[in-house]
Amino acid sequence: MQNNDLFDDKDPFGLPPQEGSNAPPEYSVSELSHKLKKVVEDEFSFVRVRGEISRVTIAKSGHMYTSLKDADAVLDAVCWRGTVARLSVKPEEGMEVVCTGRLTTYPGRSNYQLVIESMELAGQGALLKMLEERRKKLAAEGLFDAARKKPLPFLPDLIGIITSPTGAVIRDIMHRLDERFPRRVLLWPALVQGQMAAQQVIAAIKGFNALEDKLRPDLLIVARGGGSLEDLMPFNNEALVRAVAASKIPIISAVGHETDTTLIDYAADLRAPTPTAAAEKAVPVRAELLAQTLDAERRMVTATQRLLQQHRTHLQGLGRGLVDPKRLLEISMQKLDLLSSKLEHGLQNWLQRRTATLNELSAKLSPQSLLRQIKDTGRLVSGMEERLAQTKSKILHDRSISLKNLAAMLESLSFKRVLERGYAVIHDGKGNIVTSTKALKAGEDVSIQLKDGQKAATVKE
Fold first, then answer.
1. Is domain 6-128 classified as CATH 2.40.50.140?
2. DSSP assignment, residue 177?
3. Interval 301-339: pLDDT, tens
């Protein structure tokens, strides 16, 4: 066998064989990597791959790196930042998905990978499993608790509706509202299917809640028609469920048909099986209210008339037991006449008694009696004046003698008398009296006070 038989004449990578040699063509690592990249991308430019997500990593750049695996193999995958934002499924580890994209190679690590363009759950079973896990998670957080649900207004003045402006849903709701009780409606257009639907519904809920009080609806209805499980997936979005639960305005969820259930049905304050049913739950029937009002009015009038008749009959019965008012007045008038006569005689007697008392007092107040009292009082005052003068002289004399005695005693106790007996008083340099030798130091100047004056001195040892 010749050496040429070991190799194909044509290079599988498109390069001509080297002249003068039977060996395969020689490539650099980069050349071989780029040729492999071209072959792989040309052959697998559009593929759909089914597998289980084994890991999810979001780089700081926003790109997502993950892996798809089955029982026998693992395939690396990458999803660029712009595509990540458009994915209809939020990738989670363990989720079985079908990814659409293209295969390429990464020369830096000598491996191949899938560039993901779209992602969807693999089969309805996997989708329902994911939704059940999400429902349990949100329920554990208390978002579905009945205690946090808000009561619906009995007759809202303004109703906010979040749905597609072009579908039959808005027409059905408006038609049913007009039939039952026409109300003002504020429509916030939003997609109800597709990748951007959840974000637009979230923006509508937050937008309604952010309106001023006079513009804010009293009730919100989130509605769309029926569809497949995939069509209703935006209303299973976790962020949308949280927005519904956080809304300050009561929300009625009316998504799909009666058998369809989405996660926002649990978070909403009320779930309606259809958009038409949501309109029925939002407002009462005007004709029924009018009939109830008229019936209540009729019953109130009848009850009022019956009550008035009962009181009238009772009053008549009480009236029959009363005395004739004229007789009561006659007795009262006689009593009044009697009391009037007694009052007149009593007043005259009182005036006579007061007059007699006044005359008696006037007789006692004669001028001679007053002059006699004045003279007696004058003699009493003169006697008291004489006694006061005598008492004053005696007190002054006694106090003068006492003062002289105290002065003589003070003079006898003065320290000057002690000095006359030969004693002296020593003052230090500050003028303080020295009472102990310990208070003096050698060389300190002192002053000695004697009977007839002071002399300076110096302390020695």
1. yes
2. H
3. 999 999 999 999 888 888 777 777 777 777 788 888 888
